[in-house]
Design a protein that fits this description.
- By secondary structure, the chain is mainly beta.
- 7% of the residues lie in helices and 42% in strands.
- The protein is flat and about 55 Å long.
- The chain starts with a helix and ends in an 8-residue tail after the last strand.
- The model is unreliable at 15-19, 121-144 and 146-152 (pLDDT under 50).
């Protein structure tokens, strides 16, 4: 009996160590715009004792194809700098970065960001950098009063930020009873104006081992709150939530959180 108790304690101790170790890419974040002539410093955060060196890859936004090997072996110190023009061979578009340990035990995929040949120079989308209003001169007439000149309004771009589940949160499944779905709650905030007011789809993404995506709902109101259910037979590991508008123009990803077996959680004892 004592032998079994010791074995259980060892297993629980190992599980605690595993779940306390994770990687999180903190830059580039969702919506970052990289001009190819600029340098890019990739940054990530390590939780727990993960000392194995890492490799860094550039993928397409759907994570279905590797686009470029950024580095094959570098120190796991949370930062790696790509020099200017490093991405000149990459077509303009949307991409994601993955950082992965060389032993393949830990990895994380960053949010979707944009790579461009040059910065957008459309002045109509650039807010004025001072409080002066240009005076319009019309030949043969007195200059118009500047207060009557209408200036184009500049609105904050639309965005969605997931607030629940937060970083390192735990969804505690009871894996022994797979017949009953597990109730979940997802919360988010909307800012700006635009297509973030459309309806959204919500996905559950397993980060490790191996990227795997599960659809939670294909179409729901962009109300900031969703209550639903997921299967209880999911693999216990590190996950993120992805919310995207149905037109695909806005896509955001949560911080890493965990799905664990509730019976293995020391807090239940």
């Amino acid at each position: 009996m004592k032998k079994n108790i010791y074995l259980i304690l060892i297993i629980l101790s190992m599980a605690t160590i595993v779940f306390s170790q994770s990687m999180q890419i903190i830059y580039p974040t969702y919506g970052t715009v990289l001009v190819k002539s600029d340098s890019l410093t990739i940054q990530w955060r390590v939780t727990g004792d993960i000392t194995n060196n890492v490799k860094i890859r550039l993928y397409n936004r759907e994570m279905t194809a590797k686009i470029k090997d950024i580095v094959n072996n570098t120190a796991n110190n949370g930062t790696y700098r790509c020099p200017p023009n490093f991405f000149n061979d990459v077509p303009d578009g949307h991409y994601r970065i993955r950082v992965k340990t060389l032993n393949n035990n830990f990895s994380n995929t960053g949010g979707v960001f944009n790579i461009r040949t040059q910065q957008d120079t459309d002045e109509s989308n650039t807010p004025p950098n001072n409080n002066t209003t240009p005076v319009l001169k019309v030949p043969g007439r007195q200059n118009l009063n500047s207060s009557k000149i209408k200036r184009k309004l500049n609105y904050a771009p639309p965005s969605i930020v997931i607030t629940h589940p937060p970083r390192n949160h735990k969804w505690k499944l009871r894996l022994g009873d797979t017949a009953l779905p597990f109730p979940i709650r997802v919360m988010w905030k909307k800012t700006g104006t635009g297509t973030q007011n459309m309806r959204v789809r919500i996905l559950l993404q397993r980060i490790s081992p191996g990227l795997q995506t599960t659809l939670i709902t294909q179409n729901t109101a962009n109300s900031g709150l969703f209550r639903g259910r997921i299967p209880r037979n999911l693999m216990t590991n590190v996950y993120t939530i992805i919310i995207e508008t149905l037109d695909g123009k806005i896509r955001t990803e949560s911080e890493d959180f965990f799905i664990i077996n509730a019976e293995d959680d020391p807090g239940n004892r």
